Amino acid sequence: MSLELVVFAIASGLAIVSALAMVVVKTPVKSVISLVLTFFALAVLSVLLSAPFIAALQVIVYAGAILVLFLFVVMLLNLTQEAEGHDERPIQRLLGLVSVVALGGLLLGVTLKAGAPPVPAAGGPIANVKDEIPILGRLLFSDHLLAFEALSVLLLLAAVGALILSKRRFD
Amino acid sequence: MEGAAMNAVVPMTVPLNAYLAVGTILFVIGLAGALLKRNTLSIFLSIELMMNAVNLLVLAYARMRGDATGQMVVFFVIAIAAAEAAVGLAIFVALFRARRTIDVDRLSSLKW
What we know:
Mean pLDDT of chain A: 84
Low-confidence stretches of chain A: none
Largest sheet of chain A: none
Strand content of chain B: under 5%
Order of helices and strands of chain B: HHH
Shape of chain A: globular
Shape of chain B: elongated
Mean pLDDT of chain B: 83
CATH class of chain B: Mainly Alpha
Distance between the termini of chain A: 64 Å
Largest interface: A-B, 88 and 84 residues
Number of strands of chain A: 0
Order of helices and strands of chain A: HHHHHH
CATH architecture of the largest domain in chain A: Up-down Bundle
CATH superfamily of the largest domain in chain A: NADH-ubiquinone/plastoquinone oxidoreductase chain 6, subunit NuoJ
CATH topology of the largest domain in chain A: Four Helix Bundle (Hemerythrin (Met), subunit A)
Helix content of chain A: over 70%
Oligomer: heterodimer
Low-confidence stretches of chain B: 1-8
Distance between the termini of chain B: 60 Å
Largest sheet of chain B: none
Helix content of chain B: 55-70%
Number of domains of chain B: 1
Number of helices of chain A: 6
């Protein structure tokens, strides 16, 4: 058994267990923390898939920025516990569970059956970080330049929108 | 595989199907959270998890094909998720200030 396989097994096991914990746990703070764990495990998987740049982005942007934002909101709204009391919509929840299990089985079956299409050997895998960053940079500023510019406008709009939404007064 | 391997597809040690299975399982867990949780914030967290599961699938296929464009797609998804989180959380804060709750069962004014 190679080292890569061992790391893959540990990281994917951690990702799945902490994702399950995120859904099962009732306290929002614990949910966010276990999602941070999932994202770290996913970053490890990204490194295994020879995408170290994406792994760094995952840790910095997702675990570092987005989930900290979530934590701030959890504390700001003082969400200690999910609303207790009896479930008002038991039938809908049961139907939701059934559809999740059905769709999950279907998706798993289809993706595993689809599996690997015949490989058109286009280029090679990106070998290491030193080679990867120039390739990604060139792609970003040539083929995807328009999308990149649109993205910067979108981020600006999101920042302005968030500001306006949170400044609005409610009577 | 240093340097010389740039133009040849190096076989993956971990089979592609293993990554596909992990990504799909994570996606389904996220879907379960989005459908079954009652706290709006937890639903939002589950949606983030679903996006990351799809990111993993895209990365796995990008690795298999040896094509960096897949990484570009993931890059854009992460950036858009950041924008979405900012606006979504601002909406939750505004919602909480107006209604004093973010429990989905209590927020039914948009219901037909």
